[in-house]
Specification:
46% of the residues lie in helices and 17% in strands. By secondary structure, the chain is of the alpha/beta class. The chain folds into two domains: 4-176, Rossmann fold (3-Layer(aba) Sandwich), CATH 3.40.50.1970; 179-370, Dehydroquinate synthase-like - alpha domain (Dehydroquinate synthase-like, alpha domain, Up-down Bundle). Helix 2 (46-61) links the parallel strand 3 and strand 4 (66-72). The longest helix is centred in the middle third of the chain and has 21 residues, at 216-236. The protein is globular, with a radius of gyration of 20 Å. The structure holds glycine (GLY).
Amino acid sequence: MQIETVHVPLGARAYDVEIGPGLIAASGARLASMLPRPRVAVITDENVGRHHLESLRAGLASAGITAEAMILPAGEATKSWGRLEQVVEWLLAEKIERRDFVVALGGGVIGDLVGFAAAIMRRGVRFVQVPTSLLAQVDSSVGGKTAINSTAAGKNLIGAFHQPSLVLADIDVLGTLTERDFLAGYGEVVKYGLLGDAGFFAWLEANGPNLSRGDDAARTYAVKRSVEMKAEIVARDETEQGDRALLNLGHTFCHALEAATGYSDRLLHGEGVAIGCALAFELSSRLGLCAQEDPSRVRAHFAAMGLKTDLADIPGDLPDADALVRLMGQDKKVIDGQLRFILARGIGDAFVTADVPNDAVFAVLDEALAAR
Ligand code: GLY
């Protein structure tokens, strides 16, 4: 099957995202011409390493490239100061230089941590993203956001923009994901249709079931279309001064729900995004911005795919609407104490606004909580 390439046009920081099957096996051929010497440092986690590290080593070795590897524990707790120090010190001990490649083999946690380590080590070394979750392939591996979490203040609060030099999104790896992880990533795929391409959303309504069944062509197209949309937005607004916030459709609600559920497996990030997108459309409809049918159509698609759709789908207790609104106040999109929301005039037509009355947000949450 053909490999698709999406170019991220950022001038001196431009790069390609390659998408398709077999890319880990072909990684040596992909990297060889970009390397100053045939040696890379790979950082992965225990779960991903078990499934994919040997295939990556073999792929690199087929082009004569050797790989030193560091394997970290899996999970969000790895995005910490302590692990950052460990990664940077290891890269220094391995004598990785600025023109060498550090390879991040993993999902969003590894991509964010390794990207940040690459950003600060020797004031910036080059790195390659080999994203192994659907969420990382369509979102976190592209666009150069890197970060660790602050122990006291929250997620992703310490980081830098540092673009990768190449992204290899091998869709074969999606076959090793649990159904729940795959669907959580699918929440981010749908987000792209909802924010900017009604045709893509309609395509997902028709083809979503093929994607979950493992159709390679459908998976490649869905990842490619998502990455194209992300690349186009990132090229317009690399450091999120304006339009890039569109990529956070559903995320203001999601961040509050993730905080309320203690970032536990009661709610995965992509599940929170799906519920958040449904709530953002509910809010848009309440404010008279989009048709009343739009939120129902969004929810119907998530439900048809077996994704969490409503607050009722989150197990355990949730705080009341007041407390959830307060948790939204911690969002990174707050400017001068004013929350910014991504709302929609319809499916495929989202926009960023600070002009949202608190009582409308409260009412949407209160109603959603009452339906639990
Ligand atoms: N995940 C949102 C962004 O990259 O801007």
